Amino acid sequence: MPVPGQAQPDLPGILVFTMEDVRANEPGIPPNLPPSTVITAGSSVVLTSIFGVTGLLTGLLTGQVFNVFHHVENLETGTRTDLPGGQFTVPAPAQAGVIPYTSPTYTTGGTGSGADFEIPANFAGGTFSILTHAHAQNANVRPIVAAFHDRLVIEVI
Known about the structure:
CATH topology: Immunoglobulin-like
Order of helices and strands: EEEEEEEEEEEEE
Radius of gyration: 17 Å
Structural class: mainly beta
Helix content: under 10%
Number of domains: 1
Oligomer: single chain
Number of strands: 13
Strand content: over 45%
CATH architecture: Sandwich
CATH class: Mainly Beta
Mean pLDDT: 93
Largest sheet: 7 strands, mixed
Number of helices: 0
């Protein structure tokens, strides 16, 4: 089960930046089905999260662009890779409380497939730990507003 994300600042009523847990979804699966942490090799997967900005100073972040990064560790081999992420822009305060984010589509596959989430040689499945983080493109905002979520674990079988 995913753990909550951590974000700053956390000044209730003034300025709060949040990151909800990161979930794995297989595109094409009907949206009323829950996210899965067990993915069939050969399927594609996206990572979804919800960011939010609330408080009196929310308007200060309107238009700020945040880059999202995914760092992956294969737990069988210890191999670490970075997946290309994406970005989101903070909307006007009325919509900033819920900012949905969906990663690019990533591939899964068996040994030798070259997939983003590849089952390692001599294993029946691949288990992957994912650390996701976001920070502002603006160098003045970056040290103040940031978030991360650690330990989404998925298995590719």
